[in-house]
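Why run this: before we spend reagent on co-expression, it is cheaper to look at a predicted model of the complex and decide which construct boundaries make sense. The entries below are exactly what would go into the expression plan.
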Amino acid sequence: MKITIARPAAAALAAVIVAAVPPSAGKADIRRLTVRDVKTDHSTDAEAAFGRPVSISHDADAVYVVDAEAHEVRVFSKAGVFLRALGRKGQGPGEFDAPADLDARDGRLYLADKFNDRIQVLDGTGKYLGGFKVPFSPDQVCALEGGKVAVSHLPLGLRGAEPMLHCYSGEGRLLWEGMAGHTSGDRTYDAFRNLLVMVRGGRDDLYVVRKSDENAIHRFDGSGRPLDPIVVPDAYAFKTITLPLQGPNRVLRAFCWDAAFDGGWIGLLAPDYTDEGDIGPGRRVYLVGPDGSLGGLVELPSIVRRIDLDGDTIHAVDDENNLRIFRMEPR
Amino acid sequence: MKKAVALALAGLVMFSAVWFFPRAAEARDTAVCFSNYSTCRNSAFGMDVGWVRMTLVLTVCDLGLGRCLLLA
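The model came back. Tokens follow.
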């Protein structure tokens, strides 16, 4: 099983964006793309309904959904057919306690095993290949070049500005740390400010997006050196929310619920207001180019919690926790 | 006057810190408190619910930590 960023898939995405109806001159709107629901029979497919899906990703052969409630990874074909489940609750090799994220690379699955405070490496059948402990509960994981593993965590806010990104060698030796957590003394507010989405961009770059109050996509190379951030233009609207029970830091501007990368494009799942006036996941995915340009806006037929870009295809988990597969088409 | 108030507050903070600082025998219990607090917050964010609801859950975690530390 070889995992690469598929060139044909990336070209397919670029072709869809270019073919989409361009924005009218003088207007601040964006090329709009519609989608076709490729997998529609999810209602009868028990394995494609999840307890608490927290991550979706893919490699050349399969789509992986991490279910934190079931403590397992469910593996599907690219057409959405259930293939197998990996892992179970436990502390042994190949067992998980609330797995939080997965990245598939070069035939290996890298898993953030949250409450076991470790990173596990498995093959596609769930066979344990290796792993290491980390001094925190890992939140997200990205497999970088040369076996390096980038891991993020949510700081508790009790020890000042802790680094939230940590990069380890394959043997678990700490190589570098970065991205200090926001600290204002208000732990709840800071927790929201420190919510991150971390995705692998290209061969060895990390893209990190704060979920609120910042319209920049931070980039790091494999050695931890910060690269110029990608600034998303104002046409991408924040959603403002006033938090209850809080002190002076009550207002948050929600920027992103989830993110994915493929073929040079970053997909940002925009948050939206719920019927109760809360902030939740939305149904719009903005495609952001490497220069910060908004290349397209994908309007999905339903609200989704997690997204994964795969060429002109979006794998997603909807707000009823079902696997969805959408094919993008120019409007 | 300002200086006096600042000194009084600083003194109060120092006194509180010493007063509430756990003795060696209690350190294990407070460690459990912080471990539970970490689990509570990580679980809260794993719930993937709306941010207002999340704020309430995080507040419960804070209250739980405060109660645990008081009892430790």
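The domain at 7-330 of chain A is CATH 2.120.10.30 (Neuraminidase). Chain A is about 5% helix and 50% strand. Bring this page to Monday's planning discussion.
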